[in-house]
Amino acid sequence: MSKVTVTQLDEQHYRVSGELTRNSISAERLLNKNSQSNHKNWYFDLSEVSRVDTAGLAWLIHSFAELKQQGIHLELQNIPEQLQKLMQLGQVTNLFE
């Protein structure tokens, strides 16, 4: 099991790596409450995500909702095929466009 890690690259860009599964994310928050940015668009690079399940997708959706409440739009980049399929099945692809 590889725990999920979120690395802030700059004020708008983050790299998500590891597994986005129910076993690896537990009660983790995707973003630190101390993350401050004046930018209204944030980008998550998912190229280093090795596995994802529905809990990982739900975690991303929850993070999207939290950011939206703060007036920030979240865009996913380099989405793994496994996550793309889950997003299509859950009909949530348009959330992150």
From TrEMBL:
Residues 1-97 form the STAS domain. Pfam families: STAS. It comes from the Bacteria. CDD domains: STAS_anti-anti-sigma_factors. This is STAS domain-containing protein. It comes from Pseudoalteromonas neustonica.
